[in-house]
Amino acid sequence: MRIGNKALIKELNQSHVFTTIRSHQSISRTQISKVLNLGLSTVTYITEELVEAGLVVENGTAHSTGGRKATLLTFNEDYGYAFGVKIEEDQIIVACTNLNAKILRKETFTYEKETEPSKLLERIILQIKQIIQEMNLPEKKLIGIGMASSGLINQKQGIIIRSTLLGWSNENIREQMCEAFTVPIFIDNNVNAYAKAERQFGYGQGLSDFLCISIGAGVGASLFTNGEVNAGHHGGAGEVGHMVIKQNGYPCHCGQKGCLEMHASERFLEEEGRQTKHLYPDSPLHHTGFTFEQVASAAQSGDALAIGLFEELGKNLGIGVLNCINLLNPSAVIFIGEGLVAQEFFMTYTIDKASDNFFSKAGCEVGFQVSKLGEDAWVQGAALQAIDYWLEHPINEESRLLLS
Ligand SMILES: [Zn+2]
C-alpha cells in the first residue's frame, strides 16, 4: 500500500470514475457524480482526461427530462486487447479479446502428448504473434496474456506446480512467456479462469462470495471471496475432488479412497458402470464407453443402468457440494463443466441433497445455478486475469496506472 497523498487521491478518484463507467453500459457525468458522491467538477475534469486518453468514449445522450440533454459515457472496450490461452491435454486454444473479454479471434491447435512443455510454449508464442500480425494490431495496445490449465498452480510465480492431466511439474510458464512478451503474464487453474468469466458475464455478476463447481473428467471448484478468487496458500484452494465422501470407496489417483471425484465425475461412470453392468445384460453401455455423452444417450433411451448411474452420481455430488456449503457459506453455487451435457439426469438429485445444508435450514438460502456460458468462457476467463489486473485500482505499486 502506498502512503496517502494528493496524487494517490487523484488516482483513486480517477480509478473510481473509470470503474463506474465500466460497470455501466453508459452513464452521464451527473449520474457518476451521484453514484460516487463526488463533485461534478471533479468528475468532469477526470472524464475529460479519460476521454482524451481514449479509455472512455462519448456515446449519445440521455433521455431528456427537460433542460439540457446529458452526454453519455461508455468504456472504450477496444482501447486495447488481451490474450487468453487454455492449455488442454491434447490441444491449445488461443483467443484474442478486447477489454471486455469479447473474443475477436480464436485459434485451436492440437499437439502430441509427448511434446516438451518448452516446445509447446514456443508454439503458443508463435500463434499469439501470428494473430497480432494477421489482425494488424498495434503491439503497444496489448495489455497482457492470461493462461489457464488443469492442476496445481502457483499464480504469484506463474508456475504449474503439478498437472497430472498434462504430465507437467514445476513448469515456469511466466518465465518462458516473458522472454517473448513485455506485458504481464498470468496463469491460473482453468476452473478459476471460468469462475472469473462467470463473475463478469454469468450468474456470478454482482456476487462477492460464491462457489463454482466443475464436473467432467474430475471434480473441481473455484471459490470467490470478497469478489476475488481465493487461491489458498499454495494456489490450490478448490481441490474438492479429493474430499473423501466414502470410506473404502473407489481408489483415487491421489492415493486416497472414496474421493468425491471418484464418485461424482466421469471416473465414477466408468468405475461403477464397469462393476455393475453385468446386472443389466441388455444395456447399450455394454457396446460403448462410459463418457457423460454415452451414458446420457443411453439414459435418454430409458436404459436402467445409465439412469441408475446418474442418480448415484447426482447424490454423491450433492454430498460434496453440501460439505462445501457448510464449510464456506457461499451465497450461490454455480455448476460448470462438460458433465453438464447430462445435467437433466443428475442435477435434481445434486441440488436436492445440497439444499439440505446447514444454512438453508436456518432460513439462509443458498442459490443453485447451472452455468449458461459456453466453451468460450474458459479462454475469456483466462484473458480476464490480464484485463482485471490492468484495470484494477492503482493501490498496487506495480499495477500500471490508467493514464501513465
Ligand atoms: Zn483423490
Can you characterise this structure?
By secondary structure, the chain is an alpha/beta fold. The chain has three domains: 70 residues, Orthogonal Bundle (Arc Repressor Mutant, subunit A); 131 residues, Nucleotidyltransferase, domain 5; 169 residues, ATPase, nucleotide binding domain (Nucleotidyltransferase, domain 5, 2-Layer Sandwich). The protein is 39% helix and 21% strand. It contains 13 helices and 16 strands. Strands 6-5-4-7-11 form a five-stranded mixed β-sheet, with helices on both faces. It has a five-stranded mixed β-sheet with strand order 14-13-12-15-16. Strands 1-3-2 form a three-stranded antiparallel β-sheet. It is globular. The C terminus is likely disordered. It binds zinc ion. The site of zinc ion (ZN) has 6 residues, from loops.
Jot down its keywords.
about 400 residues; Arc Repressor Mutant, subunit A; Nucleotidyltransferase, domain 5; 3 domains; about 20% strand; binds zinc ion
Number of helices: 13
Task: Give the quaternary arrangement of the chains.
Answer: single chain
Mean pLDDT: 92
Uncertain stretches of 5 or more adjacent residues: 394-402
Largest sheet: 5 strands, mixed
Helix percent reads 25-40%
Order of adjacent strands in the largest pleated sheet? 6-5-4-7-11
Number of domains: 3
What's the CATH superfamily of the largest domain, by name?
A: ATPase, nucleotide binding domain
What fold name stands as the CATH topology of the largest domain? Nucleotidyltransferase, domain 5
Number of strands: 16
Strand content is 15-25%
What ligand species are in this complex? Answer: zinc ion
Give the C-alpha Rg. Answer: 24 Å
Structural class: alpha/beta
Order of helices and strands: HEHHEEEEEHEEEEHEHEEEHHHHEHHEH
For the terminal residues, how far apart are their CA atoms? 19 Å
Shape: globular
- Give the CATH level 1 class of the largest domain: Alpha Beta
